[in-house]
Amino acid sequence: MRRWTPGGYGTINGEPGDPATCPSCRGAGTVPRELEKQLVALVPYGDQRLKPRHTKRYVSLAVLGCLLLAGLTFFFLSPRSIQAQLTGLTVSASAGAGAVILNVTKTLEIANGNLYPTVVTALDMEVLHLQLVVGQHTDRRPLYIGPLGRAQKNFTVVSEITDRNTCNICSWTKIKVHHVLLFLQGNVTCNSLGRAQQVAFQSTQYVDCRGHAPTPQPP
């Protein structure tokens, strides 16, 4: 190995006047800026820069962070139940010889069990008497319900009963009891995070077909 001398800076052998100049710096002693991105530096295999510290720690923290984020996302976005229940009742009736007209007003209470809001986009309701549909109601007005919130929808269903025996019960003044049994059923359509869900509900109710106060629900 030859001894390096200041005069040989920029040459391969390190001697002044050596015709074999360094190909990287071209004899200038420094690498030109235009060649900085084209040249490759050789680093020994045992160099500490090739062995970054705390690699396992960083990888473990990244994996735990991803698992925690996935768990929280699943917990908050996991679908929960939406419940609908009929409450309250107001009836106005008009009984004639050929038909009984009942204006049944009910309140539908909707409870959102999700941790995100939902929108009730549709309400479909029907009233049955003696297994026959005597009234229907449809409501397309949207109703917003916040996370873990509750909301109510009031609606009126006009029902027409043409059964002869029922008309006689409701119109005869000699009969003191004018109760008829109605079966109410329907469903609401809820939209949560772009996903539609239908929730069914039903109720059985005795009503006074002469328009008096409603009687308690049957067991």
Automatic annotation (TrEMBL):
Keywords: Membrane, Transmembrane, Transmembrane helix. One of its GO terms (cellular component) is endomembrane system. Residues 19-56 form the Transmembrane protein 106 N-terminal domain. The chain crosses the membrane at residues 58-77. Residues 79-211 form the Transmembrane protein 106 C-terminal domain. PANTHER family: TRANSMEMBRANE PROTEIN 106A, TRANSMEMBRANE PROTEIN 106B. This is Transmembrane protein 106A. It comes from Ornithorhynchus anatinus (Duckbill platypus).
